Amino acid sequence: MPVTIFSMEMGQQQLVTRMVGSQGRVDQTKMRTGQLSDDDWSRVAEAVDKLGKARIAIDESPGLSPGEVRARARRQARVSGKPGLIVIDYLQLMAGGDAASDENRATVLGDISRGLKGLAKELQCPVLALSQLNRAVEQRN
Q1: Is the N end or the C end of the chain the one with fewer CB atoms within 10 Å?
Q2: Contact 115/75 with Cβ under 8 angstroms?
Q3: GO biological process: any one (predicted)?
Q4: 109-131 tens-digit pLDDT
């Protein structure tokens, strides 16, 4: 089944490099520096072959709104067929109104989440929205 990834943080090349390293079980530092053993190269080649056969579309446009994600996901569904999964990386980088205060930002993120839930229902597929936690919360007593 097709997978669509909306990567608002990483570019397509960086994301694909990570996917190849993960699939091939090759250290990311070795991938970046090119210091790969023959065994590493073999695993990279297998990973590239496997990922090349996968139906993965990556949209690296920054700051998309829920409406823009919905329009692009619909377009991708027309091209590739019913999606098996839509991934949003990551939620806080989506556009969605003015969020000057933390309270307002929480409201905006709630609105974005509801929009993505609507997209999941419309396209009848899971939407995985990645989010980054605020580490300051861990410091509270």
Answers
A1: C
A2: no
A3: DNA replication
A4: 889 999 999 999 999 999 999 99
